[in-house]
Structures are given as structure tokens and as C-alpha cells.
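Q: what sequence does this backbone want?
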């Protein structure tokens, strides 16, 4: 239940701190006094959108803080699921900064708005006038029946499986799209892969092949030049070998004369030896350079294949071709591997469909059993509020699709009078009737839900007199199960409260502020009397007010 509300710098409120109590609390005040501001502040605690225009002083931040005593409401699991620290007195705070940024905290830990909205749905329900439209929403109608049918645990299990089911469906869709794309390219990829595999790229050394090709392709040119070089070295008359030997013999005669001449003689001896070694190597190479047209053709074929593959794949090395080969191999394998994954995911989906079907049928059967119970309770309450001949009809259709709350589609039909045909609720019920129906539903839900606090914002719209008195009785009865607030303009309802708060405006200089105060018994008499007769309170209005409060 809401035990304390603090508001600073919000709309017409400069600073406000107000304690609230268990039971039935009434909030009254003139139109424009600031009742909607209170609801707006509570809306921030529910995670609703913050508006920079709500700041009274644009230079300071706005803070709204609510204390909720939730010791008796078994909400630890909800906090654990949202990864929020649990406290028996939980404090929710919203801040709107002058920059326009908004922050939310639960027990002094920052939270995102989605988690705050989820958490607040377990703490407080604010029923505004426009929310009677919820009654026309099929999901809300099913929510009412599920509460009476005690379907919560089954529904949670269904929704957990449905979440996994949707994930698997998305995964299957992704796999099928990928497979379709791969299949379009698979034949071509397989052809390219086969072409690269047949080239045996790991056995090819491009540099060696090019060197071998140059040798084999230039045999005659090589032999001719080697032969010419040998002639230069070995010609008997003018050959380099003969000349070096003659020079070596001449210089050897001078070696004994001085060390300098000896070193020169040794050097030419070394040159002579090196030249002889070169001549021998050239002779060996001449013998090894053999024309081999067959090997030349094989080498040329390998190189041409290599050049062709490099051109096709727009690369320059064997290593890059091998990388492409590996990538193509992965793609071809992936197309095959995807088929296995698709089969596996399809089986998981089929298994989950069986589970979801079982749970959906369980939900549907429980709903149909709960309808007579709900129907009787609603009709009994509506009889009390001036709708003695009202009746409901719940029409179910079991669909082929798994929806967020099962496979049921439902229409809630209503008849306000005997002999009147049933019609869709939103089409056949008046505004006043919708208010009373919503109260009947909220009253019924209070018996089955574990909600700590509910606030009715002028749910008495369109009713008066005896009906209003009965509506007040119903809300007072609800307050035995939960904390109930009623914002009202009707004295019959205002007199039913355990506690009465009044919202009012004060003007000081150029500044107008809204405030809320708890009324004493005497001031309650005055307030109710004013609601009965207006600003000029008559003696009879005071007497009537006392009578209403003493009932």
C-alpha cells in the first residue's frame, strides 16, 4: 500500500509530503484544484513519460517519491525476476532534470522505465475515466476471466514457452533465408571449389614453377651462351684460363723477391683456382641443360591454370587462392549443415507446439468454468448499483494461432434490460453503465488479485443519488482487501471514506500552488455539505452531511 507521497517542483506543487493509510481514502477538491496533478505524479512512479513542462521552476529538478509497504504481498519473486533489490517498504523515485532527462530509482538503485512499469503494475492501479475503454479490449476481458479462473501460474508457464517458441521461429526463419541464399549460389560455389581442389594448390610453388618454366623455355639460348662462355675461358690461344696460368707462372718467379710480390702471386693463384671451378660448373650446367618439351608443357599447363584461377578470383598469390578455397568449402558445408539445423529446430518447434497446445486448452477449459462464477458476481454487484436486469454473455472461439494469452478469442456481450438483445459492450452500454460495470469488475478482481492499491478517478461519472451511495459501499467493501482511493465529486461517496483528503489551490503574490490536506471530522462535515449545496452552505446541508458521515 502507498504510505507516503513526496512531490517537489511538479506542476503547481512546490513541495508536498503526505502520509496515506490503509482502508478507503477519499480525495475531493474543486475542478482545477490539482487532483489531476496528484495522478500525474503517481503516473511518473508508474513509469509514464516525463514532461519537462511539468517543472514548476524550470531551473530546478522535479522529484516524486512514493513509499509502498509491500510486506504482506509476496512480491519477492517479482523483484528477483526484475533484478531489483527487495525491501518491505519499497521506495520508488522519479527525477526530471532541467535538461529534460528523466531518471528512475527503486530502493535507491537506478532502473529503466520498462522494469519500473512492470514493477508498478504489481503495486498500484490508477483507474481514470477514459479507462472504461479497457472493457472493450479482448486481452483485458481475458485478464478478468483468468483472475477468476486462477490461471496465473498456467499463463506464466504458457508465456514462458511462447517466448521460447517465438525465438525458435525467428531462428528457423533466419536459417531458411540463409539456406535459400546459399542454395542460389551453391552450384556455382561447388563448381569453383571443385576447380580449386583439382588444382592441388597446396602442392604448387609459383616461384619454383616460373623458374623451371624459364629454364625449360630457354634451353638453346642457355646452352649457346654457356658454350660461348666456355670458349672465352678455355680457348688455347686467347682463353682466360691459359692467360691466367701464364700470368701466375710469371708472377711466381717474383714471389721470393719481396712479400708484396708474394701476396700478388698468391692472389692470382686464387683467381686461377676460382676460374677453374667456374669453368667446371659451367661444363656441368651445359650437360644438365637438356631440352624436355614434355616437362615444359606440364610446367606451362600448371602455370596457365594458376594464372587463370588468379585472374578469375582477382588475386595474385597461391596463398590467396587457398584462402578462397577454404571460404568456399565453408559455404558449401554450411548449406549442408543448415539442413541439419533446420530439421533440429523444426523438431523443437513441434515439441513446443504440443506443450503450448496442452497449456492453451487448459487455459481455455478453466476460463469456461470461471465464466458462470464471474457472471454471477458481476450481476450481483450491478443489481446493487441500479442495473437489476443486466446480463453478460461470453462467446469463445478457439483459434489456430498461439497468442500472448492462449488460443482463445472472446467477445463480451452485454444486455442492460430484459428483452434487449445482447450486443458488444462498448456499443450498447452508456457512460454511466460503463462506470458501474468497471466498478463491478474491479471489485470482483480485488477478491482474486494481490494488488495493494487502487485509485478510482471519478468512476462515479454519470451516476448520482442512491446508485452513488451503493458504489461507495462497494468501494468501502473493496478496501477490506486492499487500499482504495476514490477521487469524487459526489457527497454520497465522499462520506464513505475512512480518511478524507482535500486538494486546494492557494495564491501568494504571483504564484499559485496546489496543496493537499487531511480533513478532520468537523472539516469533513463542511466539505461534504459544500458538495451537497455549493459554496453557500445551508443548515440542512450540514445536517445531511452529518447523516451521510454517520452511516
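A:
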Amino acid at each position: 500500500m502507498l504510505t507516503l507521497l513526496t512531490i517537489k517542483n511538479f506542476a503547481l506543487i512546490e513541495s508536498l509530503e503526505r502520509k496515506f493509510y490503509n482502508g478507503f481514502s477519499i480525495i475531493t477538491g474543486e475542478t482545477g484544484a490539482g487532483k489531476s496533478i496528484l495522478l500525474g505524479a503517481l503516473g511518473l512512479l508508474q513509469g509514464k513519460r516525463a514532461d519537462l513542462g511539468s517543472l514548476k521552476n524550470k531551473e530546478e529538478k522535479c522529484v516524486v517519491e512514493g513509499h509502498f509497504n509491500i510486506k504482506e504481498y509476496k512480491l519477492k519473486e517479482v523483484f528477483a525476476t526484475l533484478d531489483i533489490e527487495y525491501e518491505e517498504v519499497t521506495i520508488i523515485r522519479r527525477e526530471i532534470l532541467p535538461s529534460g532527462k528523466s531518471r528512475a530509482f527503486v530502493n535507491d538503485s537506478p532502473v529503466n522505465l520498462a522494469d519500473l512499469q512492470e514493477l508498478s503494475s504489481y503495486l498500484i492501479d490508477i483507474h481514470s475515466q477514459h479507462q472504461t475503454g479497457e472493457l472493450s479490449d479482448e486481452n483485458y476481458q481475458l485478464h478478468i476471466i483468468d483472475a477468476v479462473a486462477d490461471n496465473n501460474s498456467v499463463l506464466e508457464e504458457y508465456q514462458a514457452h511462447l517466448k521460447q517458441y517465438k525465438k525458435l521461429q525467428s531462428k528457423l526463419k533466419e536459417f531458411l533465408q540463409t539456406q535459400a541464399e546459399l542454395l542460389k549460389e551453391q552450384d556455382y560455389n561447388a563448381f569453383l571449389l571443385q576447380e580449386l581442389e583439382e588444382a592441388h594448390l597446396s602442392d604448387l610453388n609459383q616461384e619454383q614453377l616460373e623458374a623451371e618454366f624459364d629454364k625449360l623455355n630457354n634451353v638453346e639460348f642457355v646452352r649457346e651462351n654457356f658454350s660461348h662462355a666456355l670458349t672465352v675461358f678455355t680457348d688455347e690461344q686467347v682463353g682466360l684460363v691459359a692467360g691466367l696460368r701464364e700470368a701466375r707462372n710469371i708472377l711466381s718467379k717474383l714471389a721470393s723477391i719481396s712479400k708484396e710480390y708474394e701476396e700478388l702471386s698468391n692472389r692470382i693463384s686464387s683467381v686461377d683456382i676460382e676460374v677453374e671451378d667456374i669453368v667446371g660448373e659451367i661444363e656441368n650446367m651445359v650437360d644438365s641443360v637438356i631440352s624436355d618439351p614434355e616437362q615444359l608443357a606440364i610446367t606451362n599447363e600448371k602455370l596457365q591454370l594458376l594464372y587463370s584461377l588468379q585472374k578469375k578470383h582477382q588475386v595474385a598469390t597461391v596463398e590467396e587462392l587457398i584462402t578462397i578455397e577454404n571460404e568456399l568449402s565453408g559455404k558449401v558445408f554450411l548449406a549442408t549443415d543448415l539442413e541439419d539445423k533446420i530439421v533440429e529446430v523444426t523438431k523443437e518447434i513441434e515439441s513446443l507446439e504440443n506443450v503450448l497446445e496442452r497449456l492453451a486448452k487448459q487455459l481455455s477449459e478453466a476460463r469456461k468454468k470461471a465464466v458462470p462464477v464471474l457472471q454471477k458476481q458481476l450481476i450481483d454487484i450491478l443489481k446493487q448499483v441500479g442495473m437489476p436486469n443486466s446480463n453478460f454473455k461470453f462467446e469463445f472461439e478457439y483459434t489456430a494461432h498461439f497468442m500472448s494469452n492462449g488460443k482463445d478469442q472472446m467477445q463480451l456481450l452485454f444486455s442492460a434490460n430484459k428483452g434487449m438483445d445482447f450486443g458488444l459492450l462498448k456499443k450498447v452500454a452508456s457512460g454511466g453503465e460503463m462506470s458501474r460495470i468497471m466498478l463491478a469488475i474491479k471489485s470482483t478482481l480485488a477478491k482474486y488479485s494481490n494488488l495493494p492499491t487502487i485509485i478510482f478517478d471519478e468512476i462515479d461519472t454519470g451516476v448520482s443519488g442512491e446508485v452513488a451511495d451503493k458504489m461507495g459501499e462497494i468501494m468501502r467493501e473493496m478496501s477490506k482487501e486492499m487500499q482504495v482511493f476514490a477521487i469524487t465529486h459526489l457527497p454520497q461517496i465522499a462520506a464513505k471514506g475512512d480518511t478524507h483528503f482535500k486538494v486546494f489551490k492557494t495564491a501568494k503574490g504571483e504564484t499559485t500552488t496546489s496543496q493537499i490536506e487531511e480533513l478532520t471530522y468537523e472539516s469533513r462535515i463542511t466539505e461534504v455539505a459544500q458538495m451537497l449545496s455549493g459554496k453557500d452552505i445551508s443548515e440542512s446541508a450540514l445536517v445531511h452531511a452529518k447523516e451521510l458521515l454517520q452511516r
